[in-house]
Amino acid sequence: MDPLIKELFIDDYEEVFKIQLPNEEERRMFFEDLIVNQAAKAPASKTSAAWRPLEVLPVAPPPKPQQLTEEEINQLEEQEEDTLRELRIFLRDVTHRLAIDRRFRAFTKPVDPEEVPDYDAVIKQPMDLSAILSKIDLHQYLTAGDFLRDIDLICSNALEYNPDKDPGDRLIRHRACTLRDTAYAIVREEIDEDFEQRCEEIQESRKKRDSWVRRTTRGTHSQAEEQQVTCADKAMEILTQPVIVDYYELKVMLLEQDDVELKVTSAVNPAMFLAMNEESEESLSHDCLQTIEEVYSSRSDLHDELLTNPDLELFTDGSSFVQDGKRRAGYAVVTTTEVVEAEALPSTRRRRKRN
After folding, report:
1. Least confident of 63-67, 211-215, 267-271, 332-336
2. CATH topology classification for 71-203
3. pLDDT tens-place string over residues 240-262
4. SS3 letters for the chain?
5. Taking Cα atoms as reference points, which of 316, 345, 340, 353 lies closest to residue 328?
6. Relative to the CA of 132, which of 43, 167, 280, 327 has its CA 20 to 30 Å away?
């Protein structure tokens, strides 16, 4: 070894290790396991399991998209709006540059129907630069591609309505094609590809979110409609009191028998909060107000008949009666042999102004 290299290592610092050359016996012992023992082993046999074809497993479904919280959605929408704001500023600038170009003056405003009366009959989807500016202000463009499609529409409308027959039509066709090429050239040159890709991602993201909102809204509406139907059914069960007896039989019981006593139940009918005169401004607010109002008056469908009584105005359908100027639900008919009582209404109520 070169003496200079030896000087780099100091024996006192234990940087030099002395190794004796191995003799023949030491070499044999070192390689014996590798050459004699390991090499002598038979190769591993290929079992039937190794040759068995692998089972074809179905492709795992894609993971469900993570549902964002309301705060995360708001942050995402703010970021998206910042990007789309830059897009709108750029599109306004492009549209303004096209509108002030004298060559494209014919495309700056809608076609006058008085000058061209048959235009609407030929062109089903008119478009002009002023309409494009309105769509920009209404946030209807999410990508530059959407903007260019309306530019294409202006050009295609001009080519469709102005056939290549006379010089005037040819000039309009030429300027329409020039408008399209100019718009494409400006957008392709000045807009960044990454920015346009970001706008397309925002458009796709909003479509997915709108789809999810519509599904959720439909489910909520269906659930609400089901609850409304259920509530209406329950209300009908409560408000439509069962007939105690046949009204003819009840009339006989009330007017011809001496041992009949009328007892007012303690239950409160929500209909009692409906004013009995037109001067009152308070009335019951209820999801089934129409049903209550039907109970409030005589009902021909129930063969309703008002019976005179010194204390009560009694309706023979058994649904309710009037006492002290208030309509009440249910009453008891007590005889010497039988007690029949109508089911009472709950006392839950709230008030509102009469319309």
Report:
1. 332-336
2. Histone Acetyltransferase; Chain A (1.20.920)
3. 444 444 555 655 655 555 555 55
4. CCHHHHHCCCCCCCCCCCCCCCCHHHHHHHHHHHHHHHHHCCCCCCCHHHHCCCCCCCCCCCCCCCCCCHHHHHHHHHHHHHHHHHHHHHHHHHHHHHHCCHHHHHHCCCCCCCCCCCHHHHCCCCCCHHHHHHHHHCCCCCCHHHHHHHHHHHHHHHHHHCCCCCHHHHHHHHHHHHHHHHHHHHHHHHCCHHHHHHHHHHHHHHHHHHHHHHHHHHHHHHHHHHHHHHHHHHHHHHHCCCCCCCHHHHHHHHHHCCCCEEECCCCCCHHHHCCCCCCCCEEECCCCHHHHHHHHCCCHHHCCCEECCCCCEEECCCCEEEECCEEEECCEEECCCCEEECCCCCCCCCEEECC
5. 345
6. 167
Q: What is the arithmetic mean of pLDDT over 284-298?
A: 48
At 7, which amino acid appears? E
**pLDDT tens digits for range 142-186:** 999 999 999 999 999 999 998 888 888 899 999 999 999 999 999
Tokens of 108: 């700056």
